[in-house]
Amino acid sequence: MNAIVVEHISKNYGAIQALKEISFHVKKGELFGLIGPDGAGKTSLFRILTTLMLADQGTATVNGLDVVKDYKKIRQMVGYMPGRFSLYQDLTVEENLQFFATIFNTTIEKNYHLIKDIYVQLEPFRKRPAGKLSGGMKQKLALCCALVHEPSILFLDEPTTGVDPVSRKEFWEMLKRLRDNGIAIMVSTPYMDEADLCERVALIQAGQILQINSPANIVADFEKDIYGVKGEHMHALLQTARSYPGTFSCFAFGDQLHLVLKDGETNSLGVQQYLSERINGDFTLQKIEPGIEDCFMYLMEK
Ligand SMILES: Nc1ncnc2c1ncn2[C@@H]1O[C@H](COP(=O)(O)OP(=O)(O)OP(=O)(O)O)[C@@H](O)[C@H]1O
């Protein structure tokens, strides 16, 4: 059975169409990523699936239960970590956790095994108000609070936004351990590089899903050539490559530019010559293997 099934869900806020006929499923015990920029509709989808908001159209089930009719049962079995405001800033670490355990009619001790790995890192700060924790620590505490009633599905809305790269890595390692314990996880992120850490990902933009697959399959199915461009004058290269009439898109990625040509530009000779005529100094242009971020950038531009 699937952990989550979404069928033709739409949601409008007045004239704004936040979700347009979204359909997908998440398997039991899967780590599923929802990748998309600000305003893509991620939070709206989370709120519908966690029974906090009604969709205008379509149906959704969580653990086989309907999000409208069975909302009370669903609330007992899911853990939800909203992007912001999930902690009580004036309560201490310990009091926050205690609070979430109590509202779910359970105790920290009963489910300590689930949060132990994460909570040991918070223990030195257990008397500190949540508002005085670092960003990474806040997110760890919020995850503990979402886990303390032993949910079978976790919904995490941008848990790594604003968190430093080391803490982000640690956070994803925790998610993998939870997934290994059989918890299905749906996690959203605006960081495209985090897509590779999920079993399957959906790319969402302007309320629509552009692609759903495993990261490896998304890359394997990518039909365009990507060229890596490097040189002494990167800014001039970027501007000039973008001005070439056959360029579809060109972005700075790490220490080089990633260039995609328009359909019909079958090789790189034209752009190579165009750059040579306009760029002072050396540069190289060569075909490179696409990464998941290239695929997403292309789909979003398209
Ligand atoms: N209560 C609301 N009233 C009006 N518009 C809203 C409301 N909530 C969201 N929106 C709009 O709906 C669209 C989708 O928002 P949503 O918060 O679901 O996206 P998101 O991907 O989670 O982005 P973000 O990370 O910025 O929250 C955006 O255009 C947003 O401005």
UniProtKB/TrEMBL annotation:
Gene3D superfamilies: P-loop containing nucleotide triphosphate hydrolases. Residues 4-231 form the ABC transporter domain. This is ATPase. CDD domains: ABC_DR_subfamily_A. Pfam families: ABC_tran. GO terms for molecular function: ATP binding; ATP hydrolysis activity. SUPFAM superfamilies: P-loop containing nucleoside triphosphate hydrolases. Keywords: ATP-binding, Nodulation, Nucleotide-binding, Transport. Belongs to the ABC transporter superfamily. It comes from the Bacteria. It comes from Chitinophaga caeni.
